[in-house]
Structure formats: structure tokens, C-alpha cells
Batch of 4 targets.
Target 1
Amino acid sequence: MDIKKIVPFDWFKKEERAGEKGLPILHRRGRDTGFSGYHPVSQLHQEIDRMFDNMYRSFGWPSFSFEEPFLPRMTAALEPTLDVSATENEYDITVEVPGVEEKDIQLELVHDTLNIKGEKKQEREEKDKDYYRVERSYGSFHRMLSLPEDADQDNINATFKNGIMKITIPRKALPKTETKKIEIKAA
């Protein structure tokens, strides 16, 4: 039995550690109110928060929710979503980056870590225009993927089309590990 098929490789271990060190990787977590999301009091609380947030945004003010106090509301849209899959011969990573141009994305390999960096730029040409609601997010993003031991780092390929980046990483055969028996002596 191959234990690696049961316990998959942790592609995000370096990203999670970097998040602890304070790198600007945005993770949005739901607020824990102590009630289930379906509890009537919790639903009322969320609805009142939403109404106040909408009112603040209509005046161009930042959200004053307890979730993100005194900061403009940011959504996880700045963190591209991705799928990681594997076959016998390669790893495939598909990254969604809608609204980002190919020239605004960088793909870097540092040791055994694949860094995906980019920026979604806001283009403003409208003058004398009042916004009633702004939901689109702009800014920089950075994803870090730890590569498994059998990833062929010299032959990584990436393509970009319609806001989707596809990364293909061939797999290489690993040298067989030798097992050495150690003699146990009586004391």
C-alpha cells in the first residue's frame, strides 16, 4: 500500500507558514458569533451588519464591521483560486485570475516553492461619476505552492488564456531508497 496516495502532499504548507509571519496574503474567514449560521439571532445580526455596511459604502466610507474594523472591505477575490491535480506523469495546476492580464502575472521558482504573483489593476477613466456600489476588488496577490519531491523543476510550463493560467509540472522518477538493517545487540 502506498501511503502517499492516502495522505496527499501539502502543496500549501509554505503559504500557511508565510501567512503566520504576516505576508500580505488575504484569507477571509467568517466571523464566529457563537451561533450557528442558521440561528435566527445570528441571521438578524448578519442582516443588520450588511445594512450598515451598505450604508457606509454608499457614502464612500469604509466598512465598520467587527470582521475588518476601520479598513475598507476586501474580498478574497484578490487571492486567486486554484485546482491542483496529478496523473502518473505530471502535476496540473489551474489558477483563476479573472481581470488580470498576462503581463501582470509572475511565475517564479525559488528552491522548491512555486510563487504566483500578480496584480489586478483598477483603470479609472470616468470623471464626474458617482458610484452607488463597488464590489470588484483590485490589488496585488501572492500564492506560494510547495513542490513535491518528484516534481521536475527544470521542465515547468505555463500557459495563459482568458484569465486562466495552466501550469504543468512533469513528474520524475525518484531514486529508490535503500533499506539498511541495523543489528540489535543484547545489552
Target 2
Amino acid sequence: MTNTLTTWRLHWQRRLQGWHRTLDDLLPWRADRLALWLALIGLVLVLLGTLVWLAGRYEASQVQAELERDTQDAVSDLRTALARDVQALQGVQSTPASERSRQEALQALLRDKREWLRVEQRDPQWQLLDAEDSPLRAPTFNRTSRDENLNEMVRSCLRARQFNGPAYSGSYYLPMSDGLGMEVMELCMPQMANGRLSGYLVLVYSLQELLVERLGHTFARRNMVSFTEADGTRLAMAGTDRRGQRLFTAQQLLDLPGNTLVLRMDGRRSAPDLFPNVLTALVTAMSIALITVVVLLVRDSRRRLKAERELADALAFRKAMENSLVTGLRARDREGRITYVNPAFCEMVGFEASELIGQSAPMPYWPPEMVGEYQQRQAIRLAGNTPPREGYESVFMRKDGTHFPVLIIEAPLIGAHGEQAGWMSAILDISEQRRVEELSRASQERLQATARLATVGEMASLLSHELNQPLAAIASYANGSLNLLDTPGPGGETLSDVHMALRRIAEQAGRAGRVINSVHDFVRRRDQARESVAPQVLLDAIAPLVSLQARKLGVQVRTELAPDLPPVVCDRTMVEQVLLNLARNGMQAMDRPECRQRLLVLQVRRAASNAHQSWLEFSVADQGSGIDPAVAEQLFTPFFTTKAEGMGLGLSLCRTVIEQHGGHLEHGPNRPAGTIFRFNLPTPSSRPNACVAA
């Protein structure tokens, strides 16, 4: 028996110790659960209280909105009633001019409208001609009281005359014989006869009766309706002051010609009876709310864990992306302080991130000689005066003092709330790009040098072309002379033919020498020997070469010379070369399939002259496709050409030749199609002035 008791005691001791350990483990969890449930219950109670309060506010707003609508409707009804009164008075005015008929019409209106106290007929000087009092009450005015309140009536009639329509007076208090009084208002209507003012019709209103008659059957039963002044002073009121726990008030302006009244409507309502509705749904609402909150908490916990995992992945991805970028990234706040740099930027400038974050102007990577310029540029950027996402070049300095060029692309840094938090910059090291550009520039210079050498070759080709003709002629004449000397014949004829051949040989040798000297002087830019040459001679000199190319390209050539043209003073060889170059360009411009009419016109005429200078104008016109405006800007630029085989020197040399003669070379569109080149040359009478100008 003793052993059994000992066994049971040990068993329960172990069980109790296990329960204690379990309770110790569960206590923190239970405390958390209790705190969570208390928070949930408090949240539900706050929610219910908020709903009750919002329901009360909603009921009150509904009552207030209804009162506002009633006030607007009341003002609309008053406007309608007053407009009908004006129509009624206008109907009285249009009644046939019979004293009795008008009096009967006014009496009928006074019996029908209790708010009408009196209707008066007055002359243009406001003197009383006739008056009708309401038969429903004792006469309101006597002579003394009417004279005392005449000013309001006069002012309303003045306004009526000014507006040429009805006008209302301001309200005023009219004492009565029984010691009481009332607030009245007057309506004045001008009466016209044959386009001239013949008098006034004055209607006196009782504001009290106006409210009772026009609003008493609708709005005054539920509310207190009154006319008030701007400061809240009541002028007249209608309705009963009903009992209630809360007062609702609405006001609306009644704008009348010449007067403005404030219509006020007061309504008392008891507090909205909310508790029956709330108690009916309270248990259901609390249960649904608790279940909903628990479900939401579970879902929120799962979403939070998922969001934390996604955030960790995003942070890891961002870190990996930042470390792998070769583009420098830099973030600055609105004051220009650095808030973030990536490893690529730190490697670019040679500074650690801790040395850069928090730094403001001047930055440690700015060259000292450019600090002022960079500070001004940063101030403009931070002020938002430069377009975003527009790259600009700059120069940074590494920690070891070396300079390197960078390209900065900057854009606004938008925060989570959609507001600009600063600026984000992407920085590219363009040192390698600059090195490539320098290599490209050196290559371009070498190409230009090669082009100049090609120009020298072209000059040599030109010389060989120009010299081939006189040398061929010399050879031909020399062979002819030898043949004449070898062939026996009459002595006089043989000597004459040999003499002529030798003279031709001398002429062609002189021509070859002139070609060499002209090109040599042109290259060295010396003044060429000039002579007087007729325009026809210049055109005849290039005619064979022009005709040869014209036949090849299918171009018709036409020359037009004005009558009685004087000679020009020029270097004949170089001017012939200018004309030949322009003619060739014109024919090549028409060597296109779309050019149906291929006509080249060489024209010479007198140019505009003055008392000291006389000029001739030479023009070469083609009917090609014209010159593009972008090409026209660089047309005379050396080494600029649109031809695959051209060197871009022709027009530049032509302009130089003409300018050395004191003239100028220009171009323009030819009508209906093509381009026309013009240049002018001096005549012998203007040669001294032309030399001075050159």
C-alpha cells in the first residue's frame, strides 16, 4: 500500500512539472495573444464608435442639406411671386386710360394680395397724384408718416429711372397708430408715355405679410422663416418656433433690383435616433469584424513574410547589379549633398564611398581650377533651370590628381510619394572615346593632306591638258614645215607657207607659256597680267571644249550677248577656266534622267555701274534640279564636293579668281528650274578703281 502511494505521488509530481514547463512555454504566447485580442476588441469598439458618430454626422448633414434646399426653394418662390407682382402692375399700366377702370383693377389686386399695403400714382417730381390702400386693413400711411419716409421711395424711383425698369427700396420700419409697427419695402415702376417719363407707380409691401402669404403654407409650417439684415437683425418673420434638441439654420440672399434681403430659415430637429439600428446589427457586426480581422491578420502575416523575402531578393539583386555596373552612379539631395555612390563611381574617382557620402560643393573630385565654374553649373542644375536627362561633358580629378573627361547624364530622383528628392546621375568615363576621336582627327588631317596632294596632281593634269593642245599644234606645224622644205616647189609659195607655220608655232608656244605662268601665278596668288578682251573672244575660246562635252551629254548650248558690249580687263586664261568650270558644272547638273530639257545658256550683259566703275555681268544658267539649301551653305568651301570623283576645289578657285579681279561670284535659282551662276568683270574705264578694290 505504501509503495503504491509512493508511485502515484511520483507520477503526479512528474505530470505537474511537465504542465509547469508547458505553461512556462505558453505564457509568452498567451500574453501575445491576449494583447492581440485586446487590440482587436479596442479596434472594433473604436470602429463602432466611429460608425455611430459618422451616422449622426450624416443624419445632421442630411437635415442641414434639406434645410438648405428648402431655403433655396423659398427664395425661388419669392422671386417668382415678386415677378408676378411686377407683371400685375404692368397690366394695370396697360389698362385703358380710364380712371375708374384702373382704380377697380388696383382694388382687385389689393383685395387679392394681402402683402400689398398701398399703391400710389406719382408724377415725375414724385408728387402724389392718387393712392389706393389695402381694403383688408386700416390705412397704413397718413400724410405725416408718408412724408417722413419719402426718401426711400425717391431713391428707388431714381434707380428705376436709371435702369428703366422696376426697382426696390431698402426696408424701413413703419410705426402704426396702435403703438406697434411693421417693416415695409417699396417697389417703384416708371411710367412712360410717347417715349418720355410720365410718372411712377409705387407699391408698398409688408415684409411680414410677404413671408406669411408666399411661404406660410409650405415652409413656415415646419420652420421659422425670416428676413434679416447682414448682421443678423430680424426684420420680419413667419412660422412657429418648434421645440427640438438641435437648431439648424440656413441663409440665402434674395437679390432684387436696388435691394438685397437675407432670407433665413431656422429649423429645430431632435437628435437622430440611431441606437435601435446600431443595437440590431451590433452583435453581427462585431462577429464579422472579429472574424474579418483574424483573416486579415493571417493574410497580412503571410504577405509580410512574402514581401520580406521579395525585398531581400531585390536588395541582393540590386547589390549585385551595382557591383557589376561599369557606369558610375551618384545621387544628390535637393541641397546638392551626395547621398549615394556605387562602386564603379568610387573606382572611377579613386575615393571610398565613406569619403564621398555627405559631401557638398566643392566636391573632392573637382579640379581646383574649375571649382567656380562647377559650383555655378550645379546651382543652375539644382534650381531646375536645365532640361532633365540631357547629358553634358565635364572633367573630374582622381584622388591621385590625374584629370579625365566624363559624360554626365542627370535626371530628377523621384521619391516614393511622387515628390522630387534630389538628382540621380549616371557618369561615363569617356577617356577612351576621346583617344579614339584624337586618332580619327589625325586620320582626317592626313586625308586632307592627301587631298591637297591630289589637288596638286589635278593641277598637273590641268597643265598637261592645257599644254597638250599647243604642243600638238607645234608638232603639226613643225612636221608641215619639214614636209614643205622636203617637197620642191615654187620658191615663193614654199617660203610663205613655212613662214606661216613658224608663226603658228610661235603663237602656240606663247599660249603654252601663258598657261604655265597663269596657273603658277594663281597658285602663288600673285596679280596676273591682265588685258582687254572682248566677251565674244572669251566665249569663243571655250566653245570647242564646251561643245565637245555638250554633244556627249546631249545638252544644247546657247550664247546671248547684249549689243555694243565693251571689252573687259582680265587674265584671259583664268577667266576662260572659270567659264569652262561653270559650264561643265551646269552640264553635269543636267546629266540626270529626270531632266527632259537640257539647255545651257551663256549670257553677257551690262551690270549695274556708277560714275567711277563700269562692269559686265557673265552668267551661266542650267535647267537641272537646283542646289539643296544645306549644300548651298558650303558650296564655296574648299574640299567640299557632292561628286564622287570631285575634290571640292572648282568653285572655290573660281570665286578666288573673280575676287582677284575685283568682282564677286554668286548663285541663285533659275526659273523655272535649275541654277544660275553670275560674276562681274570690270571694263577698261573702271580698271583703276577695280585694282584699288582688289
Target 3
Amino acid sequence: MRILVTGGGTGGHIYPALAFIRYVQKIQPDSEFLYVGTHRGLENKIVPETGISFKTIKIQGFKRKLSLDNIKTVQLFVESIKRSKEILREFKPDVVIGTGGYVSGSVVYAAARMKIPTIVHEQNSVPGITNKFLSRFADRVGISFPDAAQYFPENKTVLVGNPRAQEVVTSGKSEVLEQYGLLPDIPTVLIFGGSQGALKINQAVIQALPKFSQKEYQVLYASGDRYYNEIAEKFDIEKINHNLSLQPYIKNMTDVMANVDLLIGRAGATSIAELTALGLPAILIPSPYVTNDHQTKNAQSLVNAGAVKMITDADLTGEKLVEAVDEIMGDPEKKAMMAKASRQEGIPDAAERLWSLVNEIVK
């Protein structure tokens, strides 16, 4: 099968797409893939490193306020559809899958107009403008949260989950924490502010470190490159206590997540897919800087299920962070109940479900 995948701008659109590609490569090795992104998006850096064929089109998003830039955006959209059709005629895909971002708007729309089977995949509980637009033309819409169904045509929409979940669930217990100077048999809290880090989380961790150093559990904090030096200058982690580990970034995040007891971080769609697939309890701090406040809505469904505790970015302090961690880590029964609820919310066969959707529409 020839499969064209498109999506970009942020990791939340890219990593689920790559996870799905890797799944299909395992079960159907003779499949051929083409990934279409933009030269300015994160996908231009990430996808070529995987060895997957990659092409770009030029596109930009609409400004939410009236702007002359929107005239240019319309022109680029028209041009990008022409370019998309050229790519589609050349590659001749059996199916086109869009995972979000402006680039997928042009490619999936062009494919639908050319009568090529199309699928839109939505990672968040509240969809972005591109996927809402595309849902009118696509053959199927795969969603990751049940709440997202209300925004799409009922007869096209299927709950499939996020393909990243299926990758993560294959990670098992290991000695990976030793790579970060921690012991594998001590309860561990992972704090992660995203690849770029998060200012409010970083400020809270700085306030909390002295108290964390006195706990029986250990803490692994991935600060992001932006904030690593700031913390390293303020604290000599090795001298504070052996139960703290500060890292700028964690490359083998899925392996680490499979070996910790509690996750603290943002409420992005990929993170939620991963933690629920593993059955991890979590403290989520939704980013206030995302479109439609979708991270709060992502987290709320897990709060309602009893799987996570949510602290708003505005309310987050070091003291509140320590209190929240102690409340969970100090109560094994509560932690176990949260873990069970988290696992029940997970969709560990998400890539398989999306693949079934492909086979439904490809004749």
C-alpha cells in the first residue's frame, strides 16, 4: 500500500504520524510512505532523520485578527493545493492521512477533491480549525478523546486513540533510571515541562527542590535546555541529595515513563496518550498558551475519571506542587486507584485501530 501522511508545525501533530508509520512498517513491510510537511515546521527537522521520504509545500496559518497577512495566506493556500495535487499525482497514494496543522489542510483537501481516500486524525479533545474544515471532505475522522466527537460528522467519526500510545505500551521495566543517577527500586516522580521547558513549572520546581531533597521518593526533572543552566547555577544537585536528578532533556522518554510512579507535566495530547497507555497517575498543569485552551479540556476528562490531579498554571507554586506530590506518593491506595483509572482511559491499540480505518476505506 502507498500511504501519504501529512501534518506538522508541532510535535503533537508529527509524533503520532510517525508512530503510525512505524506500526505499519512492522506489519506490512512492503508499504511505501511519503510525508508532506512545510520547510518551516518542526517536521522538516524530525522526519528526514527517520529515513521516510519527505516533501514540503509552502503554507501559513490565518491570523485570528483582521490582517493583510490573511490575503497572502489565501494566495498561499490556493498555490499549496496546486502543489499538493502535483505531489499526489506523482506519488499516487492509496490513502492520505492528515494529523493536523495547516499543511494537512491543503494536502487532504486536494486528495479529497481527487477522490483519493482520506482520513483526518484529531489528537485533542477540542479540534483545531484545520481538522474541523477537513472533516467535511474526508472519508473518516479518527479521534483520540470521546469528547471530540461532538465537533465532527457522526457518520464519519471513530474513536481510535493516539498511535503514540501503542508504541509506549511496549516499553517495560528496566534499569533506565540508573542512566540519570537514580536507583531503579525507589519510587520515582518524573517532572517534564516539554522539549522547550515551561517557565511556571520551572519556577515551582526551583522552589520545591529543597523539600523534594528530603523525601523518600526520588525526582527526575527534565527542565528543557532553556532553563537547565538557571537551575544548575542555583543548585548543586549532587550536593543537595542523591534523590534528585536534573536533565536538560530526556531522549528515551518512553522507557523512563515506563519506570516511574508519577508524572508531572503539561496536558498535551501525546503526553496524555502515553501516560494512560502505561496506567500512570499524573499531576497535569495545562499550558494557558494553546489554542482554545484545549489542554485544560484534555486534562479535565482524566480528572473526571479520577486518573489525574490538575493544577492551573496560574495557581502553581512550589508549595502546592510538593503538597500534591506528597498527597499521591504518600497514599499507596490513592496512587493505585489513580493508576487503574488512568489505564482504563488509555487506548493501547490506537495504531491498530487507525490501520483498521485505513483498510475500511481503501478498496
Target 4
Amino acid sequence: MKYLFSDHSELYSQARPSYPVSIVQEILKLVQEHHFAWDCGAGSGQFTQVLAPYFDHVVATDISEQQLQHATYLENVSYQVQSAEQTTFADHSFDLISVAQAIHWFDFKKFYKEVERTLKPDGILAVIGYGLIHVEPLELNQHIQKLYFETLKDDWDVERHYIDEGYKTIPFPFEEIEMPVLKMQYQWSARQLLDYLSTWSAIKHYRKKNIDNPLIFIEKYLGCTSQPISVEFPVLFRCGKVSPKKQKKVLRKGSK
């Protein structure tokens, strides 16, 4: 898993979009028990906060201590610095394992072994994310499209293609459950939009190599408006269970 957001953890915690409860509600339809959940790659806890009210206890992990320090304190949540690919959790601990906007940074093979080991026999793995922002007015959206596809085209990490492909191409060796198509919608100020764009990893990479401001045209456009901006993200959503065959293998290993 990559360390990408530690050096602007506070901005990330403030500017990244919150997840709607509707995502959790869809996941809860699949989860049989609500005792123990693991939110992996939790960052500053955007998804953890939405998940926590529905479980007795949630453990939220990330490799970035700086990110976790900006997470909101919740009585039933413990924040731990742990890698997604190797944890200290006991076998068959979790009713739910969630990963929000992070799985594309993981070593899939190693993480999925941890999922198979730590998920309860009827537990659920929920992989969530959000794709490229779409805004109105359309002229502003065109500026963002140009920023994303032209100005920053050489500055995105290679793993970004998984998001561009809607998480449809990530390896997913589980019994998959079809999920509904959802969207995240907000009304943002100009400041909120600029702060969000500033959290893009490609912006950080661009600024290390160039002296010009990649957001200049968007800043100029936003400087001429005080109207709220309609913001929409497509939700990326994959859920599944460990197959009974794999589960038996894991259970046999655990009993030795």
C-alpha cells in the first residue's frame, strides 16, 4: 500500500467528500450480524464515521498515522496503524470488511488472503469508491475534464486506472453480489471544490515538477461566481463473500 496522503492529512480530512448513508444501508442488507467491522485503508475516517453507528465495534486501520490522527473520535471505533496486507487480527473476526477509495493501492493477493483469514464464514467484503467528479455549470466541468485528462495526464499514479474503469477490472476472487448503481451528490462552494481538487495525488506530483499552478483556470472561473456548485460522483461498488470451498480451506488451516 502506498503512502500518498500523509503530507496533507488535514486538508484530506476536511476536503474529501463524505459518504452517504445509502451506501451503508445497501451493505447492511447483506450483513447477517453487526458485531465487528474492519474499515481498511480508512485514512481520516470518512467511511468509518458513516459505518460506526451500525456496528457494536469498528476497527479502522491505515498505514498513515498522520491520516488517522485527523479521524473523528467515536466511542465504538478503535484506530490502528496496520497494513492492509498483514494484520494482527484473529481468524474469523469480522462480520464486515470495508475498503473505501483505497483498494487500488493494495497488494491484491496479500490483502485478499487477509480477508479470507479474518472474515467470518458468512461475512461480507465491501469495496467502495467514487469516480471522476462531475459538476454544473458545464463550462466548469469542462475545465475539470481538461485538468484531469490533459494537464495531469502524466501525473496520475498507474493504479488510478482502476478508478477510471469503475473498479470493474480489479481482481475480485469472491462470490460476488450485484449492487445497485448509486451516486454521491452535493452542493459545494468554490472553496470546497478547490480544496477537493487540491487533494488529488496528481496535483501533488505535478507541483513537484512544475512551477505553474495547474488549477489556475479553475480558480479564475470560480473567482467570478458565488453560486453553489452542483457536484456529483459515481459510486464504485463491489461486494462479495468468501466461497464455501475457500472458507473450508481457511478453517482447516486455522484448526491445525
